[in-house]
What does this fold into?
Amino acid sequence: MLELEEARRRIFKAVQSLPGESVLLSDADGRVLEEKIISPINLPGFDNSAVDGYAVQSKDLISANRATPISLRLIGKIPAGKSFSGKIELGNCVRIFTGSPLPSGADAVAMQEETQVDLKNADTVLFFGPAKPWENIRFRGEDIKAGATLAEAGTRLGVGHLSLLGAVGVESVRVARQPIVGLLATGSELREAGQPIGPSEIFESNRIGLAALARRIGAVPRIFPLISDTLAATKAALEKAFAECDAVVTTGGVSVGELDFVKAAFENLGGKLHFWKISIKPGKPFVFGQLGAKPLFGLPGNPVSALVTFILLAAPALARMQGIKNFSWPSRPATLGETLENRGNRRHFVRVFADENGRVHSAGTQASHILSSFAKANGLLEISPETILAAGTAVSILRLD
Ligand code: AMP
Ligand code: MG
It folds into this structure.
């Protein structure tokens, strides 16, 4: 049986980034940059006013105060989006608004609140206080300099980067294509929701949870019809899924039973199996293979095993297909609120619940068919083989919330 790191290493070695595509910035939320983005312009693009007020030469207002205001001649007005062709000489001021370009000659903007238009003479403005040199001015390039790197290749774009790229006029970006991942469930006992179920049949639940996980990491899930336990049905379903998708995930049919057909069907199609079985719990039976460059993740059928192996092994690979080199799920520091132990010889990924104070408890029964504890859990805690973690131990949990 393989250790988790070795399994991941082999998967990473085999899986390649998908070719990129160009998308509008407005469609790029959550996408991963394939290119480094350099700013084509300065931001701000020109010196401009940070307030509504009057552009002045600060020298004029050195002695201004409430009792003895200074009056300056108003020689123009610069609404946002316009500029002023003249130059401010001593004794002059220009009406200016937030974001309007600073007129030539000015070295400060006095806030409107510190001024008053002279009631007797509309061409004159009274200033009730001094303005320091460069006060209330936003400088060209103070946010971003033309030529600066705005985002490295491999960045997953979020609100901050999208806003920044928008501000320098980026219209579209090259991003990694989102892998289409086919989700297939094998098992003659499985039924779709809405269908009647016989006494020995169950509702299929793996594809739903896996689709949600796939979306969270930027893959596009495609749910395929249920597959009954025959070699022919499994082969036909795999063939169709590989034709339509960039990666294929199956659940069930990878154990040692004579009705487990995933491996045989895959090899029959020309797929190459890289490994089978990993030393983790839940999730021992796990198949990784490739048909051409496209990966197959053959997950166990038990619902929690399927989800956990997807989280630990398939998700990082699907992230890598989008150009993310070092994907990891978010984690949080926590403290054990009770003693938890792993008596077995495989690493155990325990469903836990961390409360708002970061105290961690088991989320319930840990058997691989128990979904109620997975639903209650907001994290997974790794416990090494033959290990007891005492209450009070500081741990880090993989976040599921
Ligand atoms: P298998 O890995 O096919 O031997 O399945 C192991 C267990 O998981 C069996 O109890 C199956 O009925 C159950 N199981 C397999 N696939 C699913 C599924 N898609 N949804 C719910 N239970 C499943
Ligand atoms: Mg089965």
